[in-house]
Protein 1
Amino acid sequence: MFKKSAKYLIAVGLTVSTAVVMAHGGATGIVKERMDAMGDMKDSMKEVSDMFKGKAPYDANKVRAAADVIKGHSGNALTKLFPEGSLQHPTEAKAIIWDEWDRFSKLADHLGTLSEGLANAAENKDTPIEEKGMMGNSSMMGGGNMMGNSAVMGGHMVHTAEEYGKMPVEMVFKMVTDNCSSCHTRFRKEKE
């Protein structure tokens, strides 16, 4: 009986291990670690996105949990997953990351600030912009502007998680997605 159970557990373990490796096209080491981190963030972003698309009910606690996952994979936690030259297959990273390390690092750090701001703004689901002190609809977001994920609030540029936390949650989520898009557009290979 014990031998059958042990063989079964080994078979299940091998199947799960193979499935995990296949999910990332055979990635190993640091490339697999960063692909796993990106997958975690993608899953969190999808969960929040589904709420704003009406595919799931809005839940501020789930927004905060998703924001915490994203924050946990941002800043230094993200940049350490990109040691210079780590371009082994099946990476989607471009070598330009290391040529533009300062830009990449700033985007990674800003992702941390934005995700913390997203958690802070989670209760602001139905808050009109005007009630939170925003000046009209003058956010200065822009996926193509690499660092243009700020907004104007009360006449000054927003730079802190606390300031982002005063905005409508959907606006902050848009800034998070713009930040991700800016990084992916510049530093990730197009999928074939």
Protein 2
Amino acid sequence: MIKRILAPVLALALVLSACQAKPGERAEGGQVTIGVGGQPLLVYLPTTLAQRLGYYEAEGLKVTLEDLQGGSKALQALQGGSVDVVSGYYDHTIQMAAKDREVRSFVTMLRYPSLVLAVSPKASKPINSIADLAGANVGVTAPGSSTDFFLKYLLNKEGLPSDAATVQAVGGDSSAVAAMEQGRVDAAVMLDPAFSLLQQRAGVDKVKILTDTRTAEGVQEDFGVATYPAAVLYSTGQWLENNGDNARKLAKAIVRTLEWIDQHSAEEIAAEMPEEYAQGNREVYVEAIGKVKEAYSKDGTIQPDGAEAVRSVLAQFIPEIERANVDVSGTYSNDYLPEKSG
């Protein structure tokens, strides 16, 4: 009797197991899971906004967004097969290329990194420059994330070892604000809306900015280029090969969202986003969107010089990338983007 009951149950389990997509396989019915390296962060706003505006659905896609602590966690999820695509920083495609793993960006959301390196109002010592970070405790979203890479690059640029400062994971939202407010870190690489919220709480004059890449001027000063690709959608070469149509639909939905952002005010953009992303302060949230708005890409493309600049920056403090001499042309593609009219 027990055997007769268990047999169909086991058979059904085997069928369901066989039907589950393995990493890189074709996604059935346009179902795509996107891992986001900190969904409330404004650098990833287009990923959520596209869903809120119904643009994924308009392309026939069923998109699930998975909120993860940072870019390194999102990359791990992609490697483990729990997500199909990552909404993360372009840096990681180059990092993977150095390991001979094909990971490719296929639509760009952010042309300026929008990272801000700031000093805590309760820093344990005077910090007036990046050089003063030697021996300091500096917050990043997560070790191995792009905020961590940025810190290491700036230290290296100052002639300091990339480990001159002690790195501490503080996340990217309210946890980062609390760490800075309470002096649990001396400084942090922050993103909006968290950074703008910190300024509002502590006072603008109390939060010293060491460098700010939310603007073209900041990008030029730190990296020596006009654009520096940051937040993108990327996936494995295998997934892209098996899901070209889904990738094109995702890219089209994101580009349509970028165009919508360009045509609407910060207030209108904020109105479409989840209320909890404002962390109880809508005024600051709207203000933060206004500051980041210009950093969003206009058309989703990556410029070759920007991609090469990212490789060059990473090679300065990641020996593996320097030794690999990565060809950046294999780390991104503009071929999935919709054709430009006219």
Protein 3
Amino acid sequence: MIKNFLSLEWKSFFRSASFGKGLAIKILMGFLSLYFIAIFLGMGVVLYPGLKKTFPDKDPLTIVNSVLFYWVIGDLVFRFFFQKLPMMVVKPLLVVPVKRSKIVNYVLGKSVTSFFNFLPLFAVIPFGITLMVEGYPILSVISWMLTLMLATLIINFLNFIIESFSTEIELSFLPIISIAGGLFVLNYFDVISFTQIFANGFNAIYNTPVLIVIPVLILIGLYIINFKLLRKKLFLDSGLKEKVKEIQASNLDWTKNFGDIAPFMQLDLKLIWRNKRTKSSVWMVLIGLLYGLFFYPQPTYQGMPWFFAFIGIFSTGIFLINFGQFIPAWDSGYYKLLMSQNIKYEQYLQSKFTLMALSVVILFVLGIPYVFFGWEILLAHFVAAIYNVGVNTHVILYGGSFNRKKIDLSQKAAFNYQGTGAVQWLIGIPLLIIPMGIFALFYFLIGFEIACLVLGILGVLGIVLHQKLMKGITAKYLQSKYKMIDAFNQNN
């Protein structure tokens, strides 16, 4: 059965509409994995001699045990945001004679092979071998190393339990932040010394290897809990809501002022406000609006006017970037239905453009108080807003024609990378790097005012040529229309 599951996933990967982009991302992640492996391997090799040299009067193993609590907390938080339960398309399997227990065991077993579980070994094994060479008891060291491996798996399954309950909450990252922050505060103020508890636990297993049965039992318990949680959700109708909530309708009559594109704008606004994933774009606006406060109050950045353009582009275009990079994937759930209607594609795209342009104008107006830090900053934000409206809106709409990954709007928003492909990684270059490069070039060659003028002229040209640009972008979407329909029908 495991062989059949692996065969299905293999075919799903190679037959996917986004195979080329998925393969490119996996190759990139492979190089990134090699980088982290090299770091952990180097750390494992130099850890013992480094600690011995820095703390000659202390046992390196005791020092390592005393900081394991921070490793557990850090690993748990990192996994929550970046590690997802390896899923497979199970709904087609639920109507064939395959036991649900086998599907769940396969999914949980696959999670054990995660890179996050193997990475610590590249530091633990060299350090353990060094301990043996230095004369530490071999059985005790092996028990200590196995305990760390078991702790890694415990964190793996504990993360899935926390994530399972977090998905039911609007701000899904609050439980993990509360748990990790609470434990850290209790330890920091010596209310409960978790560093000492963890250190004593690992020291006890090192001195009495038979105690390794305790983390084994904890691991088995967490596996059983995960098994029950997943098995409970493994039904064809598990996605149906049990609770009925009263819908609060918003008054969107003001959108009628935009003529033919009003229905599409209403659809987008309702989509943004009613779904977890899209609603995160609204909260990100606040971060973008306050982004300048991280830089402008510092004297170092006051002397770097060429950097103002980047902050202005990001601050006024934060909604444009977060919402625009997933056009039209936001509508992937009903994209086939949308394309079967008698509508003009240009109107559909024009509504997206209008929504993003309005957000840029609103964010610029709300950011006017930055003039407190200098008129140059306000001027840089003004030309950045013009550039966003005239250039970046068209760039991000054109980039959307290459989107081939479906988005599940009901999934949690925090650090959710579903729908993210090569397009989302590469689009940042023309959106942020190129305008900053142009601004910096003219700033150093001529001056600040000319750099602002050049950026503003580029934005005005984009606004003047808007109709022609939209016709070209629409043609590109129409050319990719059926490829996107096919791709959005798949579960990526």
